[in-house]
Design brief:
Blueprint (H helix, E strand, L loop, with lengths): L7 H4 L21 H4 L9 E13 L4 E12 L4 E7 L4 E9 L14 E4 L4 E10 L2 E12 L8 E9 L2 E9 L18 E11 L6 E2 L3 E7 L2 E6 L5 E2 L5 E3 L3 E4 L9 E4 L8 H18 L15 E5 L6 E2 L4 E5 L12 H19 L4 E3 L5 H19 L5 H17 L15 H27 L1 H15 L2 E3 L1 H13 L2 H6 L5 H10 L4 E8 L4 E8 L14 E3 L1 E3 L12 E3 L3 E5 L7 E3 L8 E4 L1 H12 L8 H16 L5 H8 L8 H17 L4 H22 L9 H17 L2 H17 L8 H11 L2 H12 L4 H11 L5 H13 L5 H14 L3 H20 L2 H9 L8 H13 L1 H4 L2 H32 L3 H20 L1
Parallel strand pairs: 1-10, 17-18, 18-20, 21-22, 23-30
Antiparallel strand pairs: 1-2, 2-7, 3-6, 4-7, 5-6, 8-9, 9-15, 10-13, 10-14, 11-15, 12-13, 16-17, 19-20, 23-24, 24-28, 25-27, 26-29
Helix pairs in contact: 3-4, 3-5, 4-5, 5-6, 5-7, 6-7, 6-13, 7-8, 7-11, 8-9, 9-11, 12-14, 13-14, 13-15, 15-16, 15-17, 16-17, 16-28, 16-29, 18-19, 18-29, 19-21, 20-21, 21-23, 22-23, 22-24, 23-24, 24-25, 25-28, 26-28
This protein binds 2-acetamido-2-deoxy-beta-D-glucopyranose (5 copies).
The site of one 2-acetamido-2-deoxy-beta-D-glucopyranose (NAG) has 3 residues, from α20.
């Protein structure tokens, strides 16, 4: 499944605002209960071998009747019961026969079966104990179509077509919701073939499931469609869909089907996903050596991708039928911006990657989730990159995934990838976010550079070949990679004593990630390197040792293309003989490894002056991105003096590269917020940032050129968003021009500029501007574009409109349930003065929010998003008192509120402790002149406002 990053409670102290353009939602949060309690787990001496599921679906009544036949292998004797999962409305009857003789197996007369609703079990009681053998269980039952998508299982959603509301029903079974649609062995380790039949109303279009339709029957005024049997899969990968949706077939050969499916009225938005999806499938086929379409075990595997208006997660890799949120699949050339276009390609690559890692080879239990999530996240960037290099996803991997993995690993509470102890729900949600996705993928990339691309690919092929249709374990993967490495003579020669599996395992087992401390003796050339766990708050809960493949280069002989490690650091510290000479060194070339690097002061100073010279670009952009990101973290954790850290960072004043700025912005904003309660320091720092950004703003200009690369487009988006928010006069004036032409003359704003142009229009405008954009939102047809508008609506400064906006977030049925918590976060981000309004709204309505946003987890998300915005002593106290006074009514959200207040307070204390030094640096900087200059710009901004 595709999910998300950023959990504010745990990371509140770490990440500023979530990297805004990252797909942020909180889906794994409710994975909790089922994992910690063994009561939910099944015994493995009853193995399902085949499932036949027959559903009679009444979409408009939100219900269905079902009959399931389950063939099982029993490997134990003297069994009194068979236990499987169910979470249905009613189990009507159970019947068991010996599958060989077809003789009935008598059940206990008084108590033939029972359901345990706590543990979601169906318990079948035999009259007398049965012995090992093959049995067939038949269950007749009633089920419901959940009306709230967040309830998952088989659920309904809606859309509007020609003004009328239409319903559809689809499934989301991961991680344990298949039992809501049929009784089953609902754990990933139980794999079998499934044959699905669905009966539906005549006036709908043919249903979809994992496989193609094999047979259609008319039954009265209803239609029954039976699908081909699936290959051997886990229950969570089963899917079906009942609706009047329409599809577009994109393929030249019948043996390689490929379809995009959506609600009616959106077929014009299918083409891009198909174009890129076909290429990604081909690329993965070639790379992994197993053909997607041939995985069906006797039946051609189809390749459908369905856009859903309502979807609780980002996307889900059901075999043969991937579900997506509409915004992540449908592309409109007029309306879908570059960021969302990249998402479409990369999310598709992620889900397709799962077909091999997750579907074909499945991990034994959720603690090994990293095995398939990491691979999916790896291919998310790289397979999409192969399909369309112009998207630059290979490089974006570093600033998106490597940086966010390092950010979450900087928390003292970071959990290891192979987590198996759960302390509480929060650690679960943290685990299933950044750790399994970004970190796992970053570790795989490091292993790829270490082993070499060919060996790495061969290892993956061995792993898939040896474990296909079965369960895979980390050991299976280590074995496969070891085998591939051992077959490469050069590798074995260069790394004679290195155990490849052990290198990988050190990253899997250790919590957090290391910082490498590098001390260079330029006279002797001797480099001392020491590894240590990096924790942003300074205190390390533990200090394990990683096996770190090391790459480095130096000013005497720069080489940023050779990413092959020279050695593996497997002890806490070592010395390396480098070339003597007055040359800086850089470790972690192109940030190919998952670690930060801190140098001795002299090396930093030399790097700083090189970066400020015109030769800056000789240092790889991804190393420049790493340097700014590392430095900002070291400034936060007091691992470097402000003067030295900011002294090096000063090179941003001439930097124009997307990647470097992407490595800096979130952290710069974090620091700026920490000064918010100290106006003098806050203003000085804001002006400093504006002065740093002048060069990049001038370089980019306000208008897009036809020749702009992807990263130039993304850079303009990120830089102008930030600049307009900081009050940059030119950005504001240009945005207002565009906004007014849009509003007054119906001149569309170029899609990639909309986010900050709309926001500025609303921020500088009044209620009329808000109503104008709200009208556009309500009549929007492209979801990604609607989300852009939803975000901008919250930029209004009219606080009656912000209250209106928050009301809409609960009641407007154009705002999908998965966008409601986003709307909340946007309301906080829109303007600093929105905070009191949002807080009051929360104080007065939290119970209703809990219901309308979809439950306690959603309310917790809302509460968490206060962390970054509660920056003043008064507000923190006010919020904290409210939380304490209302702890009973807040229920489980009380503790979230409490820790939000504590994190906010810790953040504020950081500001108190560090503001003087930062202020002093800004004052002594020769740049006093630039600070004055940008104040003049600000003044100009207010003039523009007055003259408008
Ligand atoms: C990865 O493996 C786990 C365990 O088998 C499975 O349940 C999960 O759904 C797979 N894919 C995911 C989480 O995307
Ligand atoms: C479910 O099973 C557990 C464990 O056997 C038991 O404690 C509980 O009472 C059962 N609940 C129901 C509703 O039968
Ligand atoms: C960098 O190293 C690689 C691999 O050793 C080599 O092929 C390449 O020519 C080097 N590049 C430079 C600029 O020295
Ligand atoms: C505004 O422009 C759009 C397309 O650019 C067009 O569809 C729409 O009808 C125009 N509206 C008005 C009021 O002219
Ligand atoms: C908003 O401002 C415009 C002028 O910019 C004015 O015409 C309009 O009446 C104002 N609307 C409201 C609701 O104040």
């Amino acid at each position: 499944m595709f999910v998300p990053i950023i959990f504010c409670i745990l990371l509140g102290a770490i990440s500023a605002t979530p990297h805004d353009d990252f797909r942020s939602n909180l889906e794994f949060a409710d994975y909790g209960t089922n994992w910690v309690n063994n009561g939910y787990r099944l015994n493995d001496f009853v193995q399902p071998t085949e499932m036949i599921v027959d559903l009679d679906v009444y979409l408009r009544q939100f219900r269905f009747d079902g009959v399931v036949r389950i063939n099982v292998d029993v490997t134990e004797n003297q069994l009194n019961q068979i236990v499987l999962h169910q979470n249905l409305v009613k189990v009507e009857g159970v019947n068991v026969v010996n599958a060989v003789t077809n003789d009935p197996v008598p059940l206990k007369i008084t108590d033939p079966f029972s359901v345990n609703s706590t543990f979601e079990l169906l318990v079948i009681n035999f009259d007398s104990p049965i012995n090992s053998g093959k049995y067939a269980i038949t269950v007749r039952y009633e089920g419901k179509i959940n009306e709230n998508p967040i309830d998952r299982g088989f659920y309904a959603g809606y859309y509007f077509y020609n003004g009328a509301k239409r319903y559809y029903a689809t499934t989301q079974f991961q991680p344990y919701h298949a039992r809501k649609a049929f009784p089953c062995f609902d754990e990933p380790q139980f794999k079998s073939r499934f044959t699905i039949s669905i009966t539906r109303d005549n006036d709908l279009t043919p249903s979809f499931s994992n496989m193609a339709i094999s047979r259609t029957e008319q039954i009265g005024n209803r239609v029954r469609e039976t699908f081909h049997p699936t290959p051997i899969i886990s229950a969570y990968l089963v899917a079906f869909h009942v609706s009047d949706f329409v599809s577009t077939e994109y393929t030249s050969t019948a043996s390689r089907p490929f379809k995009i499916i959506s609600r009616q009225g959106a077929t014009a938005q299918h083409a891009y996903a198909a174009e890129i999806g076909l290429k990604i499938t081909d690329a993965l086929d070639d790379y992994l050596g197993i053909q997607y379409h041939e995985m069906g075990q006797g039946v051609i595997m189809k390749n459908d991708h369905i856009a859903l208006p309502d979807f609780p997660s980002g996307a889900m890799e059901n075999w043969g039928m991937v579900n997506y949120r509409e915004a992540y699949l449908l592309y409109d050339p007029e309306h879908t911006n570059q960021n969302n276009k990249n998402f479409i390609a990369s999310i598709m690559a992620h889900e397709l990657g799962h077909k091999w890692f997750g579907n074909l080879v499945t991990c034994f239990w959720w603690s090994n989730l990293w095995l398939n999530e990491s691979f999916a996240s790896f291919f998310e960037y790289f397979a999409a990159h192969w399909a369309d290099p112009a998207l630059e996803l290979e490089d974006q991997f570093v600033v998106d995934y490597v940086h966010s993995a390092l950010t979450s690993d900087a928390s003292s509470g970071a959990t290891p990838m192979n987590w198996d102890t759960v302390e509480d729900n929060l650690s679960i949600s943290a685990h299933f976010s950044t750790t399994s996705y970004a970190k796992g993928a970053s570790v795989l990339r490091m292993m790829e550079h270490f082993l070499g691309q060919r060996n790495f690919r061969n290892g993956l092929r061995y792993y898939l070949r040896d474990n296909a249709y079965k369960i895979g374990t980390p050991e299976n993967l280590y074995d496969a990679l070891r085998q591939a490495a051992s077959e490469d003579f050069t590798f074995a020669r260069d790394f004679p004593n290195v155990n490849v599996g052990a290198v990988l395992d050190s990253w899997v087992q250790n919590p957090g990630a290391p910082v490498l401390k590098v001390d260079v003796n330029m006279e002797t050339g001797l480099i001392t390197v020491t590894q240590e766990r990096y924790v942003v708050t300074g205190n390390q809960p533990s200090n394990p040792t990683w096996q770190i493949p090391l790459t480095w280069t130096h000013a005497g002989e720069m080489n940023f293309t050779n990413l092959r490690p020279k050695t593996v650091l497997s002890s806490p510290s070592t010395t390396i003989q480098g070339a003597p000479g007055h040359n800086w060194v850089i470790f972690n070339v192109a940030q190919s490894g998952l670690y930060r690097v801190n140098y001795d002061s002299h090396n930093w100073e030399m790097l700083g002056s090189y970066l400020k010279s015109t030769n800056r670009q000789n240092i790889h952009k991804l190393n420049r991105a790493q340097i700014v990101n590392d430095l900002l973290f070291f400034i936060r954790s007091n691992d470097i003096s402000k003067a030295l850290g900011f002294g090096v960072l000063d090179f941003l004043g001439s930097e124009t590269d997307y990647y470097v700025w992407a490595g800096a912005l979130t952290q710069l904003d974090w620091i700026r917020r920490r000064l918010e309660h100290i106006p003098q320091a806050h203003e000085a720092f804001t002006n400093y940032l504006l002065s740093l950004m002048n060069a990049v703003i001038n370089h980019l200009g306000y208008n897009e050129l036809a020749t702009d690369s992807t990263s130039t487009i993304l850079n303009r988006m990120q830089i102008m968003n930030f600049a307009c928010n900081l009050g940059h006069a030119g950005c504001i004036a240009d945005s207002l021009n565009k906004w007014n032409s849009f509003k007054n003359n119906n001149e569309t704003v170029p899609k990639n500029l909309r986010r900050y142009v709309y926001c500025t229009g609303l921020r500088e405008g009044n209620a009329t501007d808000y109503e104008f954009l709200l009208e556009k939102y309500n009549s929007g047809e492209n979801t990604a574009d609607m989300v852009v508008m939803l975000r901008a609506l919250a930029c209004s400064r009219d606080q009656t409109r912000i209250v209106h906006y928050l009301q809409e977030s609960m009641n407007n049925d154009k705002i999908r349930i998965h966008d409601r918590t986003n709307a909340w976060a946007y309301a906080l981000q829109g303007n600093p003065e929105n905070l009191p309004t949002v807080l009051n709204f929360f104080y007065n309505n939290f119970a209703e929010i809990r219901t309308k946003y979809g439950g306690e987890i959603r309310l917790n998300t809302c509460i968490s998003s206060f962390t970054a915005h509660l920056t003043s002593h008064e507000r923190i106290e006010e919020f904290h008192s409210f939380v304490y006074q209302n702890q009973i009514a807040l229920e489980g959200s009380f503790s979230v509120g409490d820790s939000v207040a504590r994190s906010a307070n810790a953040n504020m204390l950081w500001g108190n402790a560090n503001a003087p030094e930062i202020y002093e640096f800004l004052n002594t900087k020769s740049g006093a002149a630039t600070i004055v200059a940008s104040s003049i710009l600000l003044l100009a901004a207010s003039l523009v406002q007055m003259l408008r």
